[in-house]
Amino acid sequence: MPAQRPIHVLLVYPPIPRNTYWSFGYALPFIGKRSSMPPLGLLTVAAMLPPHWEARLVDENVSRLERADLEWADVVFVSAMAIQSRGLARVAERARAAGVPVVAGGPFPTEFYDQVEGVDHFVLGEAESGTLAAFIEDFETGRPKRAYIRHALRAPREEREIDLAEFRRLREFFGEDADLRCVESRPALGLSPVPRYDLLDMEAYGSMAFQLSRGCPFSCEFCNETALFGHVPRLKSPAQALREFEMFERLGWRGPLFVVDDNFIGSIRKVKEVLSAMARFQKDRGYPFSLYTEASINLARDAELMSAMREAGFNMVFVGIETTDPEALRTARKYQNTRHSLLEDVRTIQQYGMEVTAGFIVGLDDEPDDVGDQINDFCQAAGIPTAMVGVLTPVRGSLLHERFKRAGRLLRDVPEGSNTHLFELGYVPDRNRSPETILAKYRDLLGRLYGADGRAYFARCRTLLENIGSSPTFSRKVRGAEIAGFVRSILRQPFRRYGGAYLRFLAWAASRRGGLFPEAVRLAITGHHLMAITRYSIEAEKVRGSLTEKYEMLRACVAALQNSGADSRERAVNYLRETGRRFRDRGLDRMERVQDWATEMQRQVRRTQRKLRRLPAEYRRELDALCAEFLSRLDELCSPPNSGPTRA
């Protein structure tokens, strides 16, 4: 039998924008890393390919996608989250220009396939469901379909209706050119192979990634993870988990390992079995990995579970707290957060040697008017240095999205992808609240949590180190990266705006919590990222808001003056002056002609463009384009024939 022709598969992971919380882009240079985490989904897909399919990985967060890569490839696989959607489009454009077919999968294509352009084929949902195998078979015979989908239905009635409606959308969108089936169950994780970690340049990453389970038993209204992975938690066996640990060990990895489960404790009984095997592995080898994960707050009510996690080497857990108000939590169906004191729960988890990082939401229905104060005070009291705060986002597949759609409250169906530092609402708020009010509270909360002077942030760090209990892995082992990180930190951070708070915190940690000093340095470096991105994002949003306000005011002036008639000079001039006063600009409130008003605006925008040089490139590019668009619209608005009728 002749040997099968090798098929070259190029796996491409688009860049995660640096100006997001999740990139940790301003912290990674301190430890000499280029990306926080590898693309686990693509590595898993690579392990599922037939032996004659040769895989090459290009993670654009680590290396460039070169023309030679595309010339080598027979097919390009690309996976992306919503925040990488623009990068996905660029990859697809380059691949198609090179004549290479593009296959898209992962969270963003699965949820927003109708927003993805330039892609030849879609392999949606979980690859272990049979979709990838079906695509491979069709590709090899030269008859690949447009899409491959095993659309699973959730059991609860409301969610089942959402899933059935989505199945109809899929069938209508892809038509006959799709291998589309509706199924009642999702694939067992026993089908999932050890990912191809050998494709990575491990030294480029701050952490490795490992998945133990999929699925969550809860039905939080704003969450769509169960639409992707279901309510029934599916776990890898202890033997599977240890095979992946052994792979990391063979490849020489030592250090942080993120267990990427959406809810690590979805099945407490099963996870305890795996934790026991993890603990034996870690103890026998001197704890080569420091583990961290995501879990629901009911973790704090199971002492045996927390002890098992501590013994297995967990030193951090991300918890979705969302808000501290019980009524808003009940409206959001976050019932598990209403059964006990959240502050006590956080402190309990900390006592087991695990730092709590947390997610919060501003803009929930029924939240109190002082929600920002409550979240800020809670974080300070609980010692949560890393508080990921975002505005409410109704995402497809969630109960919230369906409720808002039925009520006519949905304004935007496709998210920007970043659930932090998004200064725009995609829905109509409740109780006649204005979007501006919610966003103002959101900006204020970010500014208080991550103020440029660093006092609030480092106070939370100190509270954490005072509360934290003993753990085999909370204080990291000092290796070359840690030493280099400390040297870079001490050479750079004292000269930032927060330098005084930084030095006082490190001095306190060295004298009072000396054994945790490496963690104090890690927290300080993380804080640099959090404070930097908050400052830049708020400054950038001020520019966006100012440009929008200027343009809308000028547009209103032009319209009012056109309607007032050329003989109403006094009325027109008064309107211009009143608008200038509203804009708090003493130059504008002396203007008597729209053209002069527009000219002054042009000067102000050009001054703004010069100020933008202080911002990092990832902010400047967008805002420079916005300024250019504003000036163009300004010229258009004030050019003839408008200029005649609008003379005062």
Put simply, the count of helices is: 22
User: Which consecutive residue ranges, at least 5 long each, have pLDDT under 50?
Assistant: 641-648
The Rg value, from CA coordinates, equals 27 Å
Number of strands: 15
Question: Which class of secondary structure composition applies to the elements?
Answer: alpha/beta
Beta-strand content:
5-15%
Spatial order of the strands forming the largest sheet: 2-1-3-4-5-6-7
Helix residue percentage? 40-55%
Basic shape: globular
Largest sheet: 7 strands, parallel
Mean pLDDT: 92
Query: Roughly how many Å apart are the termini?
Result: 88 Å
Describe the structure in your own words.
By secondary structure, this protein is of the alpha/beta class. 46% of the residues lie in helices and 12% in strands. The strands form three sheets. The chain has a seven-stranded parallel β-sheet, sandwiched between helices. Strands 8-11-12-13-14-15 form a six-stranded parallel β-sheet. Helix 4 (107-111) links the parallel strand 4 and strand 5. Helix 13 (371-382) crosses helix 16 (455-467).
Which secondary structure elements does this structure contain, and how are they paired or packed?
Elements lengths: L6 E7 L26 H8 L5 E7 L7 H6 L2 E5 L5 H13 L4 E4 L1 H5 L9 E3 L7 H10 L6 E6 L4 H18 L3 E6 L24 E3 L2 E2 L10 H5 L4 E2 L2 H13 L4 E5 L8 H17 L4 E7 L7 H10 L1 E9 L3 H6 L10 H10 L3 E8 L8 H12 L4 E5 L7 H9 L27 H15 L5 H13 L12 H13 L6 H14 L4 H48 L4 H14 L11 H18 L5 H22 L10
Parallel strand pairs: 1-2, 1-3, 3-4, 4-5, 5-6, 6-7, 8-11, 11-12, 12-13, 13-14, 14-15
Antiparallel strand pairs: 9-10
